[in-house]
Every structure is written in structure tokens, then in C-alpha cells.
Description:
single chain; 500 residues; alpha+beta; Methylamine Dehydrogenase, Chain H; four-stranded antiparallel β-sheet; 8 helices; 27 strands; elongated
Amino acid sequence: MLEDSQTRPNPSESNGSAERKNGVEGCNQPPTGGQPKAAESAPAIQQSLTSGGGHTDQPPVGLEHRASHKPNGRTFSRIFKWLCMVLLLDAILGISVGYAHTTTMGISEYVLLILDGVAVWAGRVVLLVSLALVLLAFFHNQLPPELEAEQIARNILAWFFRQFRRPPISVLILIISVALAPYLFLQLRRPVPFLPPASAILIAPSGKELYVANEEAGEVLVYATDSISNRPTDHIKLAKPRLLVMAERRGEIYALDTGANEVAVIDQRSLKLKSRIPVDHWPISIAITPDERKAYISHVPPLGGGKISVISLEDHRLVATITEVNYPEGLAISPDGRCLYVTSQGAAGEFADPVFLVDTRTDKVMKNRTIPNMDVGSLVTVAPNGRKIYVARIRRSPDEPNKISIIPSVNAQRARTLYFANQISSLALTPNSKFLLAGSENQISVIDTDTYTLVETIPLEATPVGFALTKGGWAYVWIPYRGTGSGRIFFRGLSGLEQL
């Protein structure tokens, strides 16, 4: 036994020998007659990092010049497979969204949106975690001053990849990544708030009041829907109100007053005039974004040209002017609020009278998405589900018919055209986008938007200039009597056509 104990190697000597072989001993010995170097605390740092029951998942921050733990090919292969699975699932959901027509986004735009969101949030997480680790190390005095930033980054990266190889963490990351796709899918399937476009007649969100722009009489009329006797209950005096549009969350009604070259802001509750927003001459149409932050007003001077004014609804002032359009007439905004459609007149050549598309984030014309050959454009409206754009077109000569072009939002080349004898005076879509109501001389044409067929013709005594449609299947129509300053509200149920 004594001989055994003498010949068995001493563990401490073995450790010392290993340290000398690694060249660490020389670093740990102070120079003769001098003070110990700052690196002398490296063994203590390493011991503190490896303490705690052998847990080695802390990021290595010692001064050893050993090669860092680099991610192997298997780790990259796993991460690549996960990304492929997530992208495949997202692509499938994106295709289903496209076929369901619940969004105006294309498939590629949908996938890019997902990638952009993942990249942004992944970058934020990595940045925050990295900063937290570095600060934590500094606060615990675990970083000697000689340690370089490059070494810190490499050690942190190696620590991250070691965590990814751990089954609990990798499974959690996979679950979160896959759950992101259904979450985005459900977000895109959320119903878009139905914001009625500008019209000569509007219905209150409560359904209890109607607001009518009586341009000839120079006033906005208020009617009660529970007892319509064609006698207004109130009125707001203006110059020549042409169109009305409502910002429900703000509780405001915006009246485009062509006689005073301004937008009158009316408080919906008190029916009092709150303010007046001056605009340039010859305003003709108005549209507001679904977030109720901006309003667009088109201006058409008598001799051509024209522009679009951009108004901030936050502080009621002009914030931008769009001049890259010629003779802008009708305005309509997509349900997602990202695109403004502008019909035009007066152009000639191969791309006569196009429908311009304006990016509402930058207020710039998207020239690569212009829809050509839509002469002579007047009115425009977008389906509440964003699938189609409807453009009313005026004939150029008496021998030509008036038209309504129906343009798929994802493929303008597949546009369909319907022909009418009389000029279209007003357009409106039912909230479910199944029927288009087109007002013309002394009648309303009801069109099935799936089959492009005329379902019904409703005769009237004069030309209708505005529609207000409810989700309950009622249509309210403003019929002014030209030259008299008066008019009446025609209303009827549309539920007989189909459930709306």
C-alpha cells in the first residue's frame, strides 16, 4: 500500500503539468521583483465561470487563446431546416390568404412582410441579449481590460449556438417560429373596418342619422332614419358642399366645400362647425385614410393640369402636394390604407388617362403600378375586401358608350368592362362587395360583381348623386332636383337580391 501511494501520480502535480503544457503557467507567474499582471486573475475568472455544479452554459470570457466553440455543420443544418419549415408554412398560409381575398397583399409581398418582421425582431432580441450579457460580465468584473471586442463577440456567438443545440431551447424556438405564421394569418384575416367612401349622403355609425350634401342649396342636411319624411331635422350652412366623408373615431364629418375652396369640419355629436381647412382652387373629390390621419383632395383647373392636396387631420393643415398626376378626378383608398387610386382625364397617347396609384406612406406616385388606358376616368371606388377597383368612364364622343371598368387589384391585365348608355353619376358597393350600385340618368343599375351581369334596374324620377349603404341591407339614395335647390331621399331594402 505504501509503495502504491508513492508511485501513484499526484493530482495536483498532474494539473500543474497540464497547465505548463498549455503555456498558462508562464502567464500566471509574476515577473521577478515586479507586481503581478492584471491577467493573473484569469484562473479565478475561469473558476467562477465553471462553478455551480459544473454548469458550463455561461459564455466563455477567459483569456485562454484556445479556439472558440464554433457552430458545427449539424447546427447550421438544423437551423436551415427550421427556417424552411417556417417559410413553407408561411407560404401556404399566404396562398390561402390570397385565394380567400382577405387582404390586398400579393403572395410575395406577404412572405416578404413575414421575413422582414422576423428579421427585425430577431435582430432586436440578439442585440438586447448581447448587450445584457456584456453588461452583466462587466458588472461582475469578469472581463479583464485586455479582452478585445472581437473575442467577446465570438464567445457570445459560440454560447448562443451551444444554447441552440440544447433540445428544450431548440424546441421552444421552433414552436415560437411556427406559431408566428398562424398569428400573422389570423391578423390578416381580421375584418377591415368598413370606411364608407366620400359621397353626397352618409349614414351615422349608429344608423340613426343621415347627412346629405345639398350642393345647390349650400347646406348639409340632417335626417333621422327612424322616421324619414324627407324633412331635415337640422342643417349646417355652407357655400357649396359637394361631398361628405366621415372619421368615425374622431367624431368628425368633413364636407368638401367647392364654393369656398375649403374642407369644413363638422362635429358629429353637436352638428356644429368646428373649423375650416383652406385648400387650393377647384377642389373636386376627397378621400381619407382608414387610420383617419390624412385626407386627399383632388383639384382640377379648367385648362388642365391639376394636383392633389394632402391634409393632416391631426392639426388640420396642408402637409404635402402631389403634382405627378394629370387632371385628377376621382379618389379612392384601399381598405388597408396603403394605396390611393386616382382617375384622370386629358392625357393622350398610348397610356391615355391612366389610373394613378399613390403610396400613402410617402405620398409619391408609384409609376411602375400605373393602370393605363382608363380614359376618360371620372369616379372610382374600391371593394371593401380590396379585391377589385371600379372605374366609371365617360365616353369621348356621342358614338361611344359610357363604361365601368372592373380591375382586379392583383392583376390589372384582367380588367372587365361594362357598357352603359348614360353617364355614371355615382358608384357604391354593398359592404360584402357582392353588388355594385351605379347611378345614372333617372335610374340605378344593380350589378353582380361575380358574374358581371345586371341584376336589377330601379327607375327614379331624377339622377341619383350619392349612396349610403348599411350592413343590414338598406340603401339610401340622395336625389337632387336640379335647379330647385331641393331633393329627396329614396330608400329601399336590398335583401331581396341576396343576403348582404
